[in-house]
Amino acid sequence: MSKINKVAVIGTGVIGAGWIIRCLAHNKTVYAFDKDIKLKKNLILEIKRAWPFAKKLFNKKKLNLKNFHFFTSIEETLKDADFIQECATENYALKTKLMSIIGKHAKKNAIISSSSSGLLPTRIYSKCKNPERAMIGHPFNPVYMCPGVEIVPGKKTSKKYLNQANKFYKSISMNPIMVKKELPGYLADRLQEALWREGLHIINEGYATTEDLDRAIEDGPGLRWSLMGTFLTFHLAGGKAGMKHMLEQFGPALKLPWTKLKAPKLSKKLASRLISGTSKQAKGKSVAMISNIRDQYLVELQKLRKKYENKIRN
Ligand SMILES: NC(=O)c1ccc[n+]([C@@H]2O[C@H](COP(=O)([O-])OP(=O)(O)OC[C@H]3O[C@@H](n4cnc5c(N)ncnc54)[C@H](O)[C@@H]3O)[C@@H](O)[C@H]2O)c1
User: What pTM did the predictor assign?
Assistant: First the structure.
């Protein structure tokens, strides 16, 4: 297949908007659709809010909205697209139905990829007529800033289309991870979910606030995680002998009751601690204001990271 330049984005909430901005920053033509057509106005506002950051990260000159088309019919949106990125609400029934519609109207050979955060591709494509070219392409928010994307095959996905998707994501400056076979939650969300569940227990039982737990990550593991993940970090924690000594010293802790992993009940009391805790942390700033600060930080952090990660990886 020649280079993929025409991309359809189905569902234009937080993640759909992020894909649109990343694709526009890489000169792709974007066809967008959302079942709620009123969202078009907000979407344009979000593209304009995020553009200065995307522009800086990808060294672009100006935003070309001529490449952006918002349609009110899904058939029209899919008609010319070579790559379809589905970003609708996370729900098995909804996505399975949507994928059967997408499969019906997708162009011959178009790749279908879902942004799902953890649903099994074999299940969401069970009624799609072309599962061989369908997969998960799970990104991270904000999609225009984070280069990560997990490509997860369903049981019927063909290698040929997985490779084409890999190439496409690389063409929009992403670093795809090819997950070997489908699993619920894929990779990063399984790890995030474990941390989230433990955090909910700690808050539920009154040991700390949302702010305390965020600081515990921000000032410690989080600082290291932007350069290296848990495994390489723990290799260094073992001193000269690396992972071998780390396992000797901390291996026994695996038997201590440090984690519960099973999620606590999301009671009204717990939800209210989470909502009031994070709202206090926001100090009156809107989500858009904090997003601007985060984006500016991520632009500078990634430039710094590039400099240092090359020293480890090469
Ligand atoms: N928010 C995140 O951090 C995040 C990160 C990675 C992946 N995801 C995944 O991305 C997907 C979208 O999540 P989001 O956070 O953008 O949700 P969201 O609620 O912000 O947006 C979902 C959009 O889908 C639209 N929609 C629903 N049904 C539709 C249909 N049948 N056809 C067209 N549009 C439809 C809704 O109107 C809404 O605008 C989910 O699968 C989610 O798991 C989310």
Answer: 0.95
The domain that holds 211 is classified in CATH as: 1.10.1040.10
Q: Is the CB–ligand 1 distance for residue 203 below 6 Å?
A: no
* Closest of 135, 1, 149, 7 to residue 79, by C-alpha: 7
Residues 136, 199, single domain; the answer is no
* Residues 37 and 165 both lie in one domain: yes
pLDDT tens for 219-259 read: 999 999 999 999 999 999 999 999 999 999 999 999 999 99
103 contacts 134 by C-beta, under 8 angstroms: yes
Cis ω for the linkage preceding 52 (within 30 of 0): no
Verify that 153 and 237 share a domain, yes or no. Answer: no
**Domain housing 231:** 188-283
Q: For a substitution probing ligand 1, which of 89, 189, 192 has the most ligand atoms within 8 Å of its CB?
A: 89
Q: Is the CB of 88 under 6 A from ligand 1?
A: yes
Query: Ligand 1 center to residue 101 CA distance, Å?
Result: 17
Among protein residues, the one with the nearest Cα to ligand 1's atom 24 is 88
